[in-house]
# Entry
Amino acid sequence: MTYGPHTPADREWMLGALGVDSIDALFADIPVAVRAHGLDVPHGLDELSLSRRLELLAGRNRTDLVSFLGAGAYRHHIPATVDQILSRGEFYTAYTPYQPEISQGTLQTIYEYQSLIAQLTGLDIVSASHYDGAAATAEAALMTVRATRRDRVLVSRAVHRHFVDTTRTYFEGGRLELDELPTLPDGTTDLGALERELADAARPVAGVILGQPNAFGILENMADAARLAHAAGALFVAAVEPVSLAVLAPPADYGADIAVGEGQPLGIPLQYGGPYLGLLCARADLVRQVPGRLVGRTTDVDGRRAFVMTLRAREQDIRRDKAASNICTNQALCALAATVYIATLGPHGLRDVAALGAARAKQLEDALGAVGVSRIHSGPYLNEFAVRVPGARRVHATLVERGFVAGLPLADWYPDDPALEDALLLCATEVTTDDDIARFATALREVTR
Amino acid sequence: MTALVEPQPVQAEGHGLGPKRVVGGALQPTLDELSRPGRASAMVPHPSSDALERIPASQRRSGGLGLPELNEPEVVRHFVNLSQLNYSIDTGFYPLGSCTMKYNPKINEWAARLPGFAALHPLAPDAAAQGTLELLWELEQWLIEISGMKAVTLQPAAGAQGELTGILMIRAYHLARGDTARTEVIVPDSSHGTNPATASMAGFKTVTVKSTAEGQVDLEALRAALGPQTAAVMLTNPSTLGMFEKQIEQLLDAVHGAGALAYMDGANMNAILGKFRPGEAGFDVMHFNTHKTFSTPHGGGGPGAGPVAVGDKLLPFLPWPRVLRNGEGFRLERAGERPTSIGRVRSYQGSVGVLVRAYAYLLAHGAEGLIEVSEDAVLAANYLRSRLAGTFEMPFAQVSKHEFVASASAIKKRTGVRMLDIAKRLIDYGFHPPTIYFPLTVDECMLVEPTETESVETLDAFAEALISIVAEADSYPQLLHDAPHDSPVRRLDEATAARQPDLRWRPMTGAEPVCPQ
# Structure
């Protein structure tokens, strides 16, 4: 099956117009020695057969399990408006808005997105999107290097593991240094260690990155960390979770110069990892260091308000090897999802989502405490926390058979840390039910008895 | 120049040749301008008022959010009205060179939304993810066959990230052999901007080689630029000029002779499916753009996916986690399982929702269908080029692949009308303009890529529109300088946008006008 319109007569007509008698003539420029002759792949399928194959594969995934998995990707109720708007062909089958006269829909929605995320973070410059939270973190780390002309970045080990790993990969190319900061028993980053690292005059630091909440679900002392970073001439980067910003202090309030995060919780399905939405926001004076597209407001020749991609001299198609990043394709449709999500929920709805998650998580903590399972870290948390369960990996596997995903065994992310060998990172959101929690506590009691 | 008959700048309804409105609708207020305190829709239950009491006050937000307050119908109307200000493939012809704006099949959208795919958590245990893992593994096999390579990673989020992944693997390859002298990446002057930008990000210096007058990479210039300092050469084949590199064997020999590796930018794979397998020909690594070749929607700028295929040399350096076959089942590679890996290039496993669509596209087409895609794409490009050959200069004689470059250089000299003006006038005729002023190597150029999903009637109508516009340029050039006339907004003041950036609204105080001026 193909989606092409050409009948044999159409093809003959076009070949005739070209004065050639076979399609092969149009491929004669491929040297014979490297010409391929076909593909060893199956025959095409009609739509009915295709849909059966896809339903079969989708059915092999176990999305029926009661899940307490978060760890950077969160299950939320997605208002029905989001997918209805995303399904508008005018949005999802459009290209990058290089012709603003016929792209005002995309351009205004990006401007709205930038405005909404600026409201959440308190930072005025919001990139039109990056690939995901990990890539946004790596880009932010590179921004701090460019802005300070230093080549060392400190990142808490309690920043999402994939954000740290991705930043490390990106840093390889520039031969930059990425050092990890230890954490304390309460689950927060060791700010004493941060102070010592910043004091090393021989190795000046470009940026300091902490998560809020961090990878253990714990709330960090962001204001103190930012003060320390600034005192050493470094920029402070907050890796945030956007829904939590409805109830937590915005990054600008505690002195973050840059905020990054995974925007998936804002109306984007889990989809086994993507496409997601990299949030990247910065203070106004850092605008020329910001990688990726920006949309600005202007007017047309008739004086009408209009929106356009702007400050393009930072981008690869203009600056080539001098660009701020190589990013071209971004996550525009995911940013649209976030925009519709926030617009539908409004400030009170978004706050309710965050507060419900906190309430459900506390309920989960209490239910697990009643069966003898308690938290590892003593610091305050929002809706995610780690518990100690002896034989965590084995328990996790046993619970899958009983219909539960007992969060993330933190040993997957911290294989060398004995303190986390028996840790399960658990999360609750507004979709977690009383019944989920009660049945999970019972199952956990039974398998750990 | 005086017009004998002044052409009409706008016409709401068009039949066949002549102006035609495709994008219409009124400009919209912003969400903030629509907001009224107290408006809302009930999406989730209300939590108890003490839900946040256990969070230290110092960690909590003290002020309000300043987000807009609307009810659901207003939200829907706002975004639907905004959508109508967009041009899209679903509403018209989008011959954007280098972007492969083909039809986006609707079954693919349905597939990606199947709850089994859409609701799967990225850290779900392998046992709970067998369906998606099998899909990803099969997709890798398809891409291995199409590329003629040995292995594929589906992880990169877009073509540019695929390029970075490839170049970082090349870097790791040289370093693993103890070769630390390779500090340069060579790109042709016609390359995409992402190529040099990627080289810079990966810590390499970019060296640019010129193209010949025939639009091919200059083999002698490449040989002169190559040396023990060259890590890689990035070639786009077919090139951004829409032509196959006829000396590809000699080019690859030269690259490998210097000890460098050959990267193929696969942006133009739509021309050569089943016709040229880069790995078989000697390329060491390439990326695909699923949003070009395999019809995944562009989404107004993204998301894409940029799978990378590698040969034997780079296989050990692939990012982790790879998808592995495990007897009857599938599993993800574990941390530390393959120490030679360059590491992660993003979180989790990739843009899986996009990859589901690409998989559906490949399955629908099969071997014959994919070959037909490339044949029809090339046929359409050459046909359209022949229709326009008498109107625009065609700077290159060689047969085109899926796209072609045309120049308005002579038209500009004759009439003062630039390619920009012609492109803007196309909007009045109901067409999206082609890519203009790229590649950078051809004066006053447009890069036209019709794709295989457009009918002869559409190609003819587009050609006739351009011919008519060039006639307008001769008789009434001001009409083109002022175009577009019939779009929601007309030409924009981009200088002010850059000089005084206004990148966000701020919550209204109540004193502002409510509607756009």
Notes: The first helix of chain A runs from residue 8 to 18.
